[in-house]
Amino acid sequence: MKLQIRKLTKQMMNTCSKNCSCHQGTYASSDLRSAINQIKNNRECAFCPHPNFKFRDELSRKEYAISGLCMDCQDEMFGKGGKQ
Q1: pLDDT tens digits along 61-78
Q2: Alpha-carbon distance 68 to 38, whole Å?
Q3: Contact by Cβ (8 Å): 32, 1
Q4: d(CA 30, CA 23)
């Protein structure tokens, strides 16, 4: 499951710019959304085996709802932000 999420995410990121909406409603985004929803239902992280659910702020909690990434993986993916 997690490998599928990584593969679909990389595929979408490699073919589009950040502002591109060409994948909205496509099979790839539908598969990705289904996989992320399953990860969240299992209270897991989409990328790592040992998730950190101590979210820094409300924005980080919202990002988990969107991406299924725990706090550590969000920091790795987007850079460490917020109050340190």
Answers
A1: 999 999 999 999 999 988
A2: 9
A3: no
A4: 9
Using an 8 Å Cβ cutoff, are 68 and 36 in contact? yes
Q: Can you say whether the dihedral through the CA atoms of 27, 42, 58, 5 is positive or negative?
A: negative
Euclidean distance between CA atoms 45 and 49, whole angstroms = 7
Amino acid in the structure at residue 70: C
71 three-state secondary structure: helix
Chain-centroid distance of CA 40 in Å reads 10
- The Cα 42–Cα 40 span in angstroms is 5
Structural tokens at position 4: 């599928």
* Tokens 């409603």, located at residue: 25
